[in-house]
TrEMBL record:
Bias (Acidic residues): 462-477
Signal peptide positions on this chain: none
UniProt GO MF annotations: ATP binding; ATP hydrolysis activity
A Pfam family that the UniProt record links to this protein: oligo_HPY
Gene3D superfamilies linked to this entry: P-loop containing nucleotide triphosphate hydrolases
Protein name: Oligopeptide/dipeptide ABC transporter ATPase
Span of domain ABC transporter: 35-372
């Protein structure tokens, strides 16, 4: 797999923007809402649909060749973001651009080319693989769907005269003829008088090339590698390596690249360990030679020792094939190991984004600080430290809080946080945070502090308990 796949004219190589300063992927105002109470029955009853704001106004860019880590607790919208920017889910609003082109506006050959240039590795290495297919069939499926690899232009035509082969120098030059291009052999010194004109067509659209000789004969031949079909009209046609053979070679190479053996391609997913199944998923994602890969928690379901192997493999593949990653995870130690930049997500929004070191050494958002506090430490003194857990529960994306969505759990929240939704402010070193505390002269500092989150949580619990007692009294009355 050291060389790129051979594609047709609408394919990857001709659509790559080499040396461009534009981000490979840019996301602007992306929203993905799911709606409840939106069935036909609900509409007939006049019920208003309820929006679940899984992703709500996300903005970021992924530069060519980098790894952007996307982190946050479960349910914050990470996976939905990754699937939506690939077009696997339809966006409610916003724009995703890939190499400068809006993904939602792609269709036909352009959309097919985009599918070849962007791939995904799913979180669960077992449920994402078809148990009825061998791993060879799983890895080969994207190649089959896109009709790849394309056989090289290796078509040879020779004309015989009374049993004598025409010298190679006298044969028509058909090296550049591929697919259904016609090769016309005219009469003259090179051909017998009865072979005055032939049109040889080589059709490579199927699994194996089909040769058709027209004008003087009507011969169809299914041709495999190194086979030669001789018609009784005096025309000899040879066709190079067929697509199925190239596909088998490609699958074997991919499996070996991800640390498996080509001999394992006839085995089924249940015969592999979790780490091996994830390697199969990675091989499938790389089958079409993409530029951009979404890695949706690719190691979260694996043992720690296997996690390190997969992370090292992903790093090696990125260096070898100049890949760009969006790495989705909730484990910050894993993200720090593999990422160039990190975006922190909370309740459908990105609250902080920047290079790895500034994020980990000098976080500017209270939620990022809380996430970093939860990372286990190997050092004894650090391990025994007191960790202050966040108070309260994560608000529902059906009814997110006003203002800053984190203010209900934030120990630094003030009245300004409840009233206004902060933009992402510049925290220096290409580092941005959606927190008023990042601005020294912001009115936040003059606004009234809110009650500590734990007191707010206790008050909420007391209110709920009081409501429950009131409801019980009403029912008994």
């Amino acid at each position: 797999m050291s060389e790129r796949l051979d594609h047709d004219e609408t394919d990857v190589d001709e659509t790559r923007t080499v040396g461009s300063n534009e981000p490979l992927v840019s996301v602007d105002g992306l929203e993905k809402h799911y709606y409840e109470n939106d069935s036909l029955f609900d509409r007939l009853l006049g019920r208003d649909p309820t929006a679940v704001r899984a992703v709500d106004g996300v903005e970021f860019a992924v530069e060519r060749g980098e790894t952007l880590g996307l982190v946050g607790e479960s349910g914050c919208g990470k996976s939905t973001t990754g699937e939506t920017l690939l077009g696997l889910r339809e966006a409610t609003a916003g724009t995703v651009r890939f190499d400068g082109e809006p993904v939602a506006e792609l269709s036909g050959d352009e959309e097919k080319a985009f599918r070849r240039r962007a791939g995904i590795v799913f979180q669960d290495p077992f449920s994402s693989l078809d148990p009825r297919q061998t791993v060879g069939e799983i890895v080969a499926e994207p190649l089959q769907v896109h009709g790849l690899p394309k056989p090289a232009a290796d078509v040879g035509v020779a004309v015989v005269d009374a049993g004598r082969d025409v010298a190679a120098s006298e044969s028509p030059d058909v090296e550049e003829k591929t697919d259904t291009d016609a090769v016309t052999i005219e009469g003259g010194d090179l051909v017998a008088s009865e072979a005055a004109a032939f049109v040889v067509r080589v059709d490579r659209t199927g699994e194996e090339p089909t040769v058709r000789i027209e004008e003087r004969a009507d011969v169809n031949a299914s041709v495999r590698e190194d086979d030669v079909t001789v018609s009784d009209t005096g025309v000899t046609v040879a066709v190079g390596t067929d697509r199925s053979r190239l596909r088998r070679e490609r699958v074997a190479d991919l499996l070996e690249r991800v640390g498996l053996s080509a001999a394992q391609r006839e085995r089924y997913p249940h015969e592999f360990s979790g780490g091996q199944r994830q390697r199969v998923g990675i091989a499938r994602a790389l089958a079409l030679d993409p530029e951009f890969v979404v890695l949706d928690e690719p190691v979260s379901a694996l043992d720690v020792s296997v996690q390190a192997q997969i992370l090292n493999l992903l790093g090696d593949l990125q260096d070898e094939f100049d890949l760009t990653y969006l790495f989705i995870a909730h484990d910050l130690s894993v993200v720090r190991h593999i990422s160039d930049r990190v975006a922190v997500m909370y309740l459908g929004e990105i609250v902080e984004i920047g290079p790895v070191e500034p994020i980990f050494e000098h976080p500017s958002h209270p939620y990022t600080e809380a996430l970093l506090e939860s990372v286990p430490r190997a050092n004894t003194a650090e391990r025994d430290r007191d960790v202050e857990a966040l108070a309260g529960d994560v608000p529902s994306p059906r009814d997110p809080p006003s203002g800053c969505r984190f203010h209900t759990r934030c120990p630094h929240a003030r009245e300004a946080c409840r009233e206004d939704d902060p933009d992402r402010f510049d925290a220096g070193s290409n580092h941005e945070a959606a927190c008023f505390r990042a601005i020294d002269d912001h009115p936040y500092w003059q606004s009234t502090p809110l009650e500590p989150p734990e007191e707010r949580a206790q008050a909420t619990d007391a209110d709920l308990e009081e409501e429950g007692e009131w409801a019980a009294d009403e029912s008994s009355a």
